[in-house]
């Protein structure tokens, strides 16, 4: 918050903190330092979308900026982004360029293709990579700043857009909700990332489990963060339909026995006990099992809180 007060000039603003029953933040401590802030409690870990919806529902301003707790403002990017938003006139939501803590550019792809390609498991080689890139091309726009979705760490929009869309879909617990919302936002205008507006995003987030996953050695088959990929599957079903989603799940189910058989075969060829060193296979099976528990609910678009 200190960086917001330090760098944001030329506009009046309020800061709303929505606390998801986290003990990492102390209301008394923060309000003593920043008495102007508005502190809201959800009373439980309501996830990213529900918490941000609550904040927007209680906001008084004309423009809303959703800003992650693990971000820092590094210049007057908030006022600059609002001025760009106002002058463009055809923007539904806008973001800014993300930087690492050392201020180097953070590489990310705010396009559907990156998530869809990542979701499919093919034999890991250059030919498979080339095939999936050709099969799932990245969208191209006349405006070089337009993207498929605005990442949730920094989303700027006005009140009217929020009210027309209803905000985030509250079936999402965390991850994927920004992608799903942007698909609805694009029906009202462009989704843009302003290239001259920047902010630092530490990107560890509030999830200890996700941090641990990122620190672990990630293999080709065990690359999925269960919560993140479950949310992606919910979005994929909503945007691309039941057939695409079912085909994706079928190929996961097929990979479970194939992954085991490949390891058993490799062990046998080396004259070792066939069923040793199956830790990666078991982990993969557990992850696909997690997705499978939600298969029917996702297939029929049930209003379920998709939390691992």
What does this structure look like?
The protein is α/β, with parallel strands linked by helices and 308 residues long. It folds into three domains: 168 residues, Spore Coat Polysaccharide Biosynthesis Protein SpsA, Chain A (Alpha-Beta Complex); 28 residues, no CATH class; 91 residues. The protein contains twelve helices and seven strands. Strands 4-7-5 form a three-stranded mixed β-sheet. It is globular. The protein starts with a helix and ends in a 9-residue tail after the last helix.
State the share of residues found in helices, binned by percent: 40-55%
Number of helices: 12
Strand order of the largest sheet: 4-7-5
Largest sheet: 3 strands, mixed
* CATH H level, superfamily name of the largest domain: Spore Coat Polysaccharide Biosynthesis Protein SpsA, Chain A
Strand content: 5-15%
Number of strands: 7
Radius of gyration over all CA atoms, rounded: 21 Å
For this entry, give a set of tags.
14% strand, alpha/beta, single chain, Spore Coat Polysaccharide Biosynthesis Protein SpsA, Chain A, three-stranded mixed sheet, 3 domains, 308 residues
Q: Would you spell out the secondary-structure blueprint of this structure?
A:
Elements: H1 2-7, E1 16-19, H2 27-33, E2 38-41, H3 47-58, E3 63-67, E4 71-73, H4 77-88, E5 91-99, H5 112-119, H6 126-135, E6 154-158, H7 159-165, H8 177-185, E7 190-201, H9 208-215, H10 226-269, H11 279-293, H12 295-299
Parallel strand pairs: 1-2, 5-7
Antiparallel strand pairs: 3-6, 4-7
């Amino acid at each position: 918050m200190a960086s917001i007060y330090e760098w944001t000039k030329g506009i009046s603003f309020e800061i709303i903190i929505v606390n998801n029953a986290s003990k990492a933040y102390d209301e008394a401590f923060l309000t003593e330092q920043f008495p102007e802030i508005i502190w809201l409690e959800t009373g439980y870990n309501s996830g990213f979308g529900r918490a941000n919806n609550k904040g927007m529902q209680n906001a008084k301003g004309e423009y809303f900026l959703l800003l992650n707790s693990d971000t820092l403002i590094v210049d007057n990017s908030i006022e600059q982004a609002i001025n760009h938003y106002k002058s463009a006139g055809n923007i539904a939501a806008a973001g800014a360029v993300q930087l690492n803590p050392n201020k180097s550019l953070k590489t990310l792809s705010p396009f559907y293709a990156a998530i869809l390609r990542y979701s499919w498991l093919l034999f890991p080689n250059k030919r498979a990579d080339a095939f999936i890139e050709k099969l799932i091309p990245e969208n191209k726009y006349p405006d070089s700043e337009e993207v498929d979705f605005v990442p949730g760490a920094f989303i700027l929009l006005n009140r009217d857009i929020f009210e027309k869309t209803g905000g985030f879909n509250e079936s999402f617990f965390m991850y994927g909700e920004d992608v799903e919302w942007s698909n609805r936002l694009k029906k009202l205008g462009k989704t843009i990332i302003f290239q001259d507006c920047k902010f630092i995003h530490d990107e560890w987030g509030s999830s200890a489990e996700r941090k641990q996953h990122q620190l672990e050695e990630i293999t080709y088959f065990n690359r999925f963060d269960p919560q993140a990929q479950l949310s992606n599957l919910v979005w994929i079903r909503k945007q691309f339909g039941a057939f695409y989603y079912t085909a994706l799940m079928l190929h996961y189910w097929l990979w479970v026995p194939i992954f085991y058989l490949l390891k058993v075969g490799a062990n046998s060829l080396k004259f070792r006990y066939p069923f040793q060193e199956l830790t990666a296979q078991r982990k993969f099976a557990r992850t696909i099992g997690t997705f499978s528990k939600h298969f029917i609910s996702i297939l029929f678009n049930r209003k379920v809180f998709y939390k691992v």
